Amino acid sequence: MSGRPRGGRGHERREETRRIAPDIVVLYGWHPVREALQNPARRLRRLLATENALRRLQEERVELGLAPEIVRPGEIDRLLTPDAVHQGLYLEADPLAAPAFGDLGPNDVVLVLDQITDPHNVGAIVRSAAAFAVAAILTTERHSPAATGVLAKAASGGLEHVPIVHVRNLGDTLDEMGANGVLRVGLDSEGAAVLDETPLRGPLALVLGAEDKGLRVRTRSLCDALARLDMPGAIKSLNVSNAAALALYVARRALPPGGRRP
């Protein structure tokens, strides 16, 4: 017996998680890790796997790209929060590289998330972004979930197709986008214009606000246009992840065919 308080193990895991460098992406669980291992654009740093998980990777002929560390499940437990379901796999990797604003072309779309905090919503947005060939997702360093865990599971592999960029000052970033010719369109349920009647061109940034507060004042002021999705029913607003999917569909119909591929 060590005499450690019963709650100490969870505290120890949280302490361990905080030691990871901020520029490292942590992925765990079968689907997120397998997708990352199969992505040639993802630079891998460290892979921990249980014997059973490694055997399953080998059976599915997944190329690892680096030598795994064979561990017991408890060794992965100590690196994560107590409620994390890792299925015997833990991966540290570099973030995906995002294109510079000046390199975006006429068929490119980026998403800008203004303090959207729910990892389920952001994960669903990432999945839609991958389906509609979004070039990058920009979000705030603060008041946004890390690209791991619940978010990665909700994204269902989408993290391997769309870079997520955390920016310190969203307003300055929107300024820079405008200076590089990016059309900035904010989604607002109170917007005067309807999105599918708004003239759209690429490169295009669709800007989405937080679930409860919408776009912040400065964010709104830096958009070239504010537009709403036309809702004929009694409810005039959608969950932000559903709104993102519909907005991307409208944008893709308005822009030239295609989109940036990883």
TrEMBL record:
InterPro entries: Alpha/beta_knot_MTases, Ribosomal_eL30-like_sf, rRNA_MeTrfase_TrmH, SpoU_MeTrfase, SpoU_subst-bd, tRNA_m1G_MTases_N. GO terms for biological process: methylation. It is an enzyme of class 2 (transferase). Keywords: Methyltransferase, Transferase. Its EC number is 2.1.1.185. It holds the Pfam family SpoU_methylase. Residues 26-99 form the RNA 2-O ribose methyltransferase substrate binding domain. GO terms for molecular function: methyltransferase activity. PANTHER family: 23S RRNA (GUANOSINE-2'-O-)-METHYLTRANSFERASE RLMB (PTHR46429). This is 23S rRNA (Guanosine2251-2'-O)-methyltransferase.
